[in-house]
Specification:
There is one protein chain. This protein is an alpha+beta fold and 452 residues long. It has 17 helices and 17 strands. Strands 9-8-12-13-15-14 form a six-stranded mixed beta sheet, with helices on one face. A hairpin with a 2-residue loop joins strand 6 and strand 7. The longest helix is centred in the middle third of the chain and has 15 residues. It is elongated, with a radius of gyration of 27 Å. The termini are far apart.
Length: 452
């Protein structure tokens, strides 16, 4: 039975993969039972009645007839599932807790269907074929739920990464680390941390799982012949995401739309949001049982490809872009808590919409063996208040900003201000001159550069 202090910490942590809030018992009790069935088919969880979606404790009373109706509905789950249901006094009111274990005899079926937990939501598998396929694919054991004997979460956690998790998840500073670990259900029933905990919070998960890295490769041209840059990023999964995004930003073209003095808008050749979706999708849904491949981001002159091991699960393949199912529900749930996943099955439509809004071709998808999303590159020109008429890089933009405040500087003075060599600075000045952004005025030895 969960005590008041732990219940408060659980509520402060918010809804997620293992926690669901209900203000009251719904008129159709079966709606509760569907959630309970989903928890049993995952890692278990707590269904709290008397708490609203924002985590505010409202309190509720469950009369005997309602408790009997809930127990009766739970008894319809097959195979039989035992759940504890009890009241906890908190904030001068009563919250009812339905404590659902992780079922030992998965799959659990209610009203002829299996319900599974997907992030902070539950989904229904409707046919026997979908049910069989799902559990065959997962072998009834999610990779991120397997106990990791080599990982001690209290000594091996990456502290800065965990602080980032706390901040992005908006967790109460009053909640202890230990309580958060327990609320997130990062341990199995024997108290051993799971693989998902090691990969998401460990300092160097790649030491235990060498394939758990993101490899970023820049090629010259449109084929995989000449490699210009090749980096692999390890560490906690969230940090892999951050590092991969930083690598992409260092390679992609960006234009600066100048709105006024000191104001500018970055316009990336491909919207960054599509890469955020693709990388989080890869980290959440890759097949971690496959040790012979890694997540890869490959950049060519004409495209960027993001790939992860593992094709689509059968139910997802039939409803591609409309239905989602995580191979690693614990990891997916942790990204969801960090608000990096908005809602289930929304990633594909958001990528398509973002590319459409940027007047770029919609992403292409390949789903056999590896899941790959392809974004086409298309360098464009931007007009910005008659100042910049082409794409400028960051160093060229620095020169523009400098000449706006200090017109008439010569090449040596500009080089000193932007901390570049004279030869490199001359290359930037030539480029800006060809784009019609700047001009040289005066004699060769005494003149300087001005914005047109």
């Amino acid at each position: 039975m969960i005590e008041e202090e732990n219940l408060q910490a659980l509520i402060h942590s918010g809804e997620g993969y293992n926690v669901e809030f209900k203000v009251r018992v719904p008129s159709k009790v079966r709606e509760l039972t569907e959630e309970i069935c989903a928890f049993a088919n995952a890692d278990g969880g707590y269904l709290l009645i008397g708490v609203d979606d924002s985590g505010q404790v409202i309190g509720t009373n469950l009369e005997n007839d309602k408790r009997s109706a809930i127990q009766g509905s739970i008894s319809e789950i097959s195979p039989a599932l035992h759940c504890d249901m009890y009241a906890v006094n908190i904030e001068n009111t009563t919250v009812w807790v339905i404590d659902v274990p992780s079922g030992k005899d998965k799959p659990y079926i209610f009203s002829g269907s299996i319900f599974v937990r997907e992030g902070a939501n539950s989904q229904k598998l409707r046919t026997a074929e979908e049910m069989r396929s799902f559990f065959q694919e997962c072998n009834k054991i999610f990779f991120d739920a397997i106990p990791c004997l080599k990982f001690n979460i209290y000594s091996d956690v990456d502290e800065q990464n965990f602080r980032d998790f706390r901040r992005e998840s908006k967790l109460s500073p009053e909640t202890s680390d230990k309580q958060i670990f327990e609320n997130l259900m990062l341990f199995n029933e024997k108290g051993i941390a799971k693989n998902g905990a090691a990969m998401f919070f460990g300092k160097h998960p790649e030491n235990m799982f060498p394939h758990v890295v993101v490899r970023c490769i820049l090629f010259k041209g449109t084929t995989k012949v000449y490699i210009i840059d090749d980096k692999s990023f390890g560490g906690p999964l969230y940090q892999q995401y951050v590092q991969a995004m930083a690598w992409l930003e260092s390679k992609l073209q960006v234009a600066y739309k100048i709105e006024g003095p000191g104001q500018r808008e970055e316009i990336w050749e491909i919207p960054l949001t599509v890469f955020k979706e693709a990388i989080i999708n890869a980290l959440s849904h890759r097949d971690y049982y496959e040790e012979g491949a890694t997540i890869t981001i490959e950049m060519f002159d004409d495209r960027v490809e993001v790939s992860n091991p593992g094709g689509l699960l059968p139910i997802v393949a039939k409803n591609f872009g409309h239905k989602s199912m995580a191979r690693n529900p614990l990891i997916f749930g942790l990204f969801t808590r960090m608000l990096l996943v908005e809602r289930v099955a929304s990633g594909i439509p958001r990528m398509q919409e973002a590319m459409k809004d940027a007047n770029l071709p919609e992403p292409e998808f390949r789903t056999d063996g590896m899941f790959t999303v392809i974004f086409k590159r298309q360098i464009k020109n931007y007009a910005t208040n008659d100042i910049v008429n082409d794409i400028v890089n960051e160093n060229e933009q620095a020169i523009i900003n400098l000449l706006r405040t200090k017109p008439g500087l010569n090449a040596s003075e500009i080089a000193e201000n932007i901390s570049k060599s004279w030869r490199t600075t001359m290359r930037y000045l030539k480029s800006l001159n060809e784009k019609g952004v700047i001009e040289f005025r005066g004699a060769p030895k005494t003149g300087g550069y001005y914005l047109k």
